[in-house]
Inverse folding.
């Protein structure tokens, strides 16, 4: 479509419509949403401002068809649009979330507010993908904390959405930086920061720049991996939302070099299978499959980006036939006592804050699904002192390695 064919916008370039409280944010459901696992209120000031900004655009005359919600963290945006009055309800709506926990939170909140059938009827994608944003005319997106994630998803919108797309990206002021404006400006000709409200702000982007090279997935060849018992290079892939990108995580490296020297009882696996919990870019899963050509590996992560990245890393290493990827919240699909060997490098943060909560939950999940006598090898930041949790949730735990930053332990499930 040539520039002259793009539908005329009701709002001139460089401006946005005046944003006021709308019927979308007067809905009672916004005051009764939970995260998953339940940890606090599920709607924040950024969600509310995003909804009111979308309402302002639609009231000004921007079309309400082909609306996409990208990475709605707990359903605040999607459920509000489903429950909206007719004059503000999208004519067509689709949604996609990177984190499985976000999907589960949205489903639970839909049950609470009688919107289960409406949510299930929506077109949904596993992650933020081309399919989600293709032809979209309005995209609502909470701003991700990582610039790499924003770069990846912004490119997808600019490349595949409609020519007259309005991208609304909202976040809390304390998490926003000028670099976010620059990322959006690289993909759109018109980027306007909206007025702040409730310590939140929405960035509006229009005029997609087409034909730019996709920034993700990225790949990196790692030489000098002889301490891992592998010939170089080890090639890792990552989409934008994968923590650590294509790097060889130093904690993972310590764990794998420790396993390579035969310090653990966990390998070789008793039944020829191994589970990599929280697979990220696939380092652990690919390493295990390369080290043992008879091993069947299952790589699990709640992030759709991580699962896709692990799959790419396995394909690059020629082991995709022995690395199965699964997107799951913890290990909800596995019955108790069903796995003999688990390797785990748990996250130590939630957003920008150090938080052991997720690690403790994954350790508990590992303890639940390990068979009696099964092994969990875990690497963790030493200052977090996970050993008492490992002893309590899994079983007897011994230290395999330690350096100034990380500790590697092996826990054996009680018989």
């Amino acid at each position: 479509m040539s520039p002259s064919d793009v539908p005329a916008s009701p709002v001139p370039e460089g401006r946005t419509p005046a944003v006021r409280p709308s019927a979308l944010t007067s809905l009672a459901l916004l005051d009764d949403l939970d995260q998953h696992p339940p940890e606090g209120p599920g709607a924040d000031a950024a969600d509310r401002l995003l909804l009111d900004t979308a309402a302002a655009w639609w009231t000004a005359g921007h079309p309400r068809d082909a609306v996409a919600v990208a990475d709605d963290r707990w359903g605040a945006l999607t459920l509000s649009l489903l429950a909206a009055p007719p004059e503000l309800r999208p004519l067509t709506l689709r949604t996609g979330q990177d984190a499985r926990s976000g999907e589960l939170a949205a489903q639970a909140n839909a049950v609470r507010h009688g919107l289960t059938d409406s949510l299930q009827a929506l077109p949904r994608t596993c992650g933020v993908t081309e399919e989600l944003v293709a032809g979209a005319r309005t995209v609502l997106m909470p701003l991700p904390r990582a610039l790499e994630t924003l770069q990846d998803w912004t490119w997808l919108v600019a490349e595949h959405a409609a020519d007259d797309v309005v991208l609304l990206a909202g976040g809390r002021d304390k998490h926003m930086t000028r670099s976010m404006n620059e990322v959006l400006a690289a993909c759109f000709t018109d980027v306007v920061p909206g007025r702040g409200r409730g310590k939140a702000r929405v960035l509006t982007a229009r005029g997609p720049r087409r034909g730019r090279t996709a920034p993700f997935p990225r790949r990196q060849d790692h030489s000098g991996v002889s301490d891992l018992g592998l010939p170089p290079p080890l090639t890792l892939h990552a989409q934008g939302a994968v923590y650590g990108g294509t790097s060889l995580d130093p904690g993972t490296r310590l764990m794998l070099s420790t396993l390579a020297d035969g310090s653990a009882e966990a390998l070789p696996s008793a039944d020829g299978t191994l589970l990599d919990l929280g697979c990220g870019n696939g380092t652990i899963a690919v390493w295990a499959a390369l080290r043992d050509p008879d091993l069947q590996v299952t790589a699990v992560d709640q992030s759709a980006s991580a699962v896709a990245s692990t799959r790419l890393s396995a394909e690059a290493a020629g082991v995709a036939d022995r690395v199965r990827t699964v997107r799951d919240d913890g290990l909800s699909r596995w019955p108790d006592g069903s796995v003999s060997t688990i390797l785990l490098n748990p996250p130590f943060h939630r957003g920008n804050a150090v938080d052991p909560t997720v690690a403790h939950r994954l350790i508990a999940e590992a303890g639940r699904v390990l068979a009696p006598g099964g092994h969990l090898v875990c690497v963790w930041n030493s200052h977090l002192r996970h050993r008492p949790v490992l002893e309590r949730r899994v079983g007897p735990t011994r230290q395999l390695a330690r350096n100034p930053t990380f500790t590697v332990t092996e826990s054996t499930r009680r018989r």
Observations:
- The radius of gyration is 23 Å.
- The CA atoms of residues 364 and 392 lie 9 Å apart.
- The mean pLDDT is 94.
